[in-house]
Amino acid sequence: MALERELKLALPGDLPASRADALISHLDRLPGAQARGERHLVNRYFDTPDLALARAKAALRLRYVARDGHAGQWLQTLKSVGVARDGVHVRHEWELAVHGEALELAPLIAACDMPATAALLRDEGERVVAQFETNFVRRLWRYVAGDGTAVEIAFDRGEVAVEADGLRHTEPLIEVELELLDAPDDDRDGQGERILQALARDLCAVLAELHSDNVSKAQRGYRLRQKVLGG
């Protein structure tokens, strides 16, 4: 099990390209940051027809990652209930590679070491179907602070999509994620999260449209689903 800690910053969907380019240029020049290229990510989120996973504050995702022109890879991810405050999201996460464009729930259930979450997936797994999708290009940087704390900076631009009655309904998705990768002493004194907040302040000073956001991509998808389907 991994404990995911990230700070999310959202941007308006109609952000001009020139403003996005200004942020990218800043990150390319940021001391301690190294550009890591682009990824194209397609994420399908699954739930039961009555949204049993959402009610339990869990998320089940099948992800396709294409890396800088190389052959892509399929991954499945399960996230458990977490907390979000001032844009900082803390969740338990389990992620495994799969052989193709389909969930493989048995190994994911075996990997999940939270009994209630594993039981939920075991009981409801046969009923899950795709509910919505996020499709975006992710630009990456790895940032290392002076004390060795490592942060992945991701700039995502794309859309959230729901299929209904043969139509594809979309909303723009544009945000920055700052994920804590490694911190001295497992971040017992909270220095890692302080570095996330300091990075966020630096980016907000460059791009005033940025603001902390407690809404995850999965929550955005469920909201669009409700808007399109009415339930």
From TrEMBL:
UniProt xrefs under InterPro entries: CYTH-like_dom_sf, CYTH_domain, YgiF
Domain CYTH: 2-228
Pfam families to which the protein is assigned, alphabetical: CYTH
GO function term, MF aspect, one: inorganic triphosphate phosphatase activity
Top-level taxon of origin: Bacteria
Protein name: CYTH domain-containing protein
